[in-house]
Fold:
Amino acid sequence: MPPAEQYGYSVARLRAMSGRLLEESLIQRVLESDDLETAVKVLGETSYVQWLGEQKGTLDFDRVIENELVHGYDEVQKFVPDARLVQICRLPYDFHNVKVLLKSLILAKEGGERRFDLLTPLGNIDRDVLITAMETEEYRLLPFGLHRAVPEALALWEQTKDALVMEKSLDRALFEAMGNLARETNIEAAVQWVRGRIDAENIRNLLRLKRLDIDPSDVGSFLHAGGLISKEKLLSLLPEPVESWGRSLSFSEVGDAFSHVEDSSDLSTLVVRMERLLDEYIFSVLEESKFGAFEPGYVLSFLWKKEMEAKNLRIAMVSVANDTDRSMAKGLLRHV
Structure:
């Protein structure tokens, strides 16, 4: 790892860049707009204005949000001492693109159409490079363990014809790759943050499976290794009411996410609410990194704020576009 002092410049620059992050008051203005055109005008008062000219209409706001996020990642990657900190954050998008291409290949074999339009530029791997590798079955040069993960996922599809089994295999490979990258940096904050992300994903899966009343013997295959909370401990929560999970997880900071859960009778609503609380928990793992002048973890902290900004904007814009209950959308906004 580069000496901690090397992060002094990066942290100082990121603190300056934080001034471009959208304040909650502006997100509220977007959310309270009468129509999508007004919401876009509010967005035009921010750094997002540089992407508005690329819109193909007011409904194309997702492209604007994506372009700003790509720009943020690219900019940080240019000056951060260890680019792996940025790569960790972008890895989920690489695996998203792989899933899109695998499903596209399967659909094409069955007479369907390929959906390259669902690929995102947010990943580390250039989309054209990834498409070529997938189309020619030349996986050996794919990074981040994908050279093994892709053929394994395809083999599972051939055996089971079950897309969910294939996706679970890729999700396991994703978190393994994130953990490997974090350990390679020798940055403890990065390791702990990835472990926190694994915990959050495991709890999300556990809540969804509890809502669907899945056979308990099948639940373990949806949980990922490498988190701060063991799979055995998580599985022991399944029979318990969700409002008691906070007490069972009190040894971990993620237990605080359940402190406001008083009634789990409506699991569908609770799952949506916990999505927000778990995203905020992931940010809290980096709490100590916010204050140091030479903290590598501040890089992850800034990028997660940018991710949450994009998520909040999508929630607000979709709510305005569909004219849904604004108070409901407001309750979904992440506070980081």
